[in-house]
Amino acid sequence: MTKSILVSTFILLCAVILESSILSNITFIYIVPDLVLICSIYFSLLNGKIVGETTGFISGILLDFITGIPFGFNCIFRTIIGYVGGIFAKNVIISGFILPMLCVGIGTIAKTLMVNLLGLLFPNVHIYIAGIISYDFLFEFIENVLLAPFVFKFLSFFRKSLAVRSVKDSIDND
């Protein structure tokens, strides 16, 4: 389990750097897709609730540290999304095409709702808050949903290192 979380943390760190340093500086990208959210959902669907909430928390801490938002802002909702995603770990086939898109779509909606709620608790912090009915949300939702199968496929190459159970055990149990 420790190896899985360490590998997941390294992948999340790479995704945070890619998202916050590289993709955010490309001028023709209107809204940056949330690669960290997609990775966290993958880890939670692969390994379950405990790893889901742990990687959600770690991704939140990394984002809080790099983006300068007060510590805990991203941790709260990413931990919840990771835990809820982990509940469905044995019920969702992550190697498909439609279910990863559906899971990431639901995760993006949940993220937006929780960010808007947390924005009420952090009134002095000027964060980007977009409602469900906005172009910003629509672009992020479409980007996340369309990228989900490709990110899931890419992360499946590291499945042996990421899985808490052995890959053979998870195939036999399915």
Automatic annotation (TrEMBL):
The species this protein was found in: Treponema bryantii
The name this protein goes by in its record: Rod shape-determining protein MreD
Localization per Swiss-Prot or TrEMBL: Cell membrane
Cellular component, GO, one term: plasma membrane
Record keywords: Cell membrane, Cell shape, Membrane, Transmembrane, Transmembrane helix
Membrane topology: Multi-pass membrane protein
Family listed: Belongs to the MreD family.
NCBIfam families associated with the record: shape_MreD
Transmembrane segments: 28-45, 57-81, 87-110, 117-135
Superkingdom in the source lineage: Bacteria
Record-level GO BP terms: regulation of cell shape
Pfam families in UniProt: MreD (PF04093)
